[in-house]
Amino acid sequence: MNSNEQIKSFVDRVENINEQIKSFNDDKRDIFAEAKSQGFDVKALKIVIQRRAKDPDELSELQGIVETYENALGTPSATRAGARAA
Predict the structure, then answer these.
(1) 70, 80 Cβ separation under 8 angstroms
(2) What is the pLDDT along the chain (86 residues), one digit of tens a residue?
(3) Are 35 and 45 contacting, i.e. CB atoms less than 8 angstroms apart?
(4) What letter does residue 54 receive in the DSSP assignment?
(5) Cα–Cα distance between 48 and 26 in angstroms, integer?
(6) Smallest Cα–Cα separation from 42: which of 28, 30, 32?
(7) Are 36 and 42 in contact (CB under 8 A)?
(8) Please, what is the Cα angle at 53 between 33 and 38, to 5 degrees?
(9) Phi, psi (degrees; rounded to nearest 5) at 34
(10) Is the entire prediction scored with pTM above 0.70?
(11) Backbone dihedral region for residue 39 (phi beyond 0: left; psi -120 to 50: alpha; all else: beta)
(12) Distance CA 42, CA 32 (A)
């Protein structure tokens, strides 16, 4: 395979992946629309999904740092509890 064919192959493969990504993103949008139509809070669902994707130790460490910063700012605990849900 010459260099022109290799370049075309790389470009074709990446374009194929880009199409797959677009399709997956369309599917995600449809799922979130379905959840919203059934009364679920999409923003909260996205946060749950994001947190589940993180390493538990990393998430715990991050939460501790956020609490430290909030304490330094004098953020009331009731506000922090509401912010954790967001």
Answers:
(1) yes
(2) 899 999 999 999 999 999 999 999 999 999 999 999 999 999 999 999 999 999 999 999 999 999 999 999 998 765 555 555 55
(3) yes
(4) S
(5) 20
(6) 32
(7) yes
(8) 20
(9) -65, -45
(10) no
(11) left
(12) 6
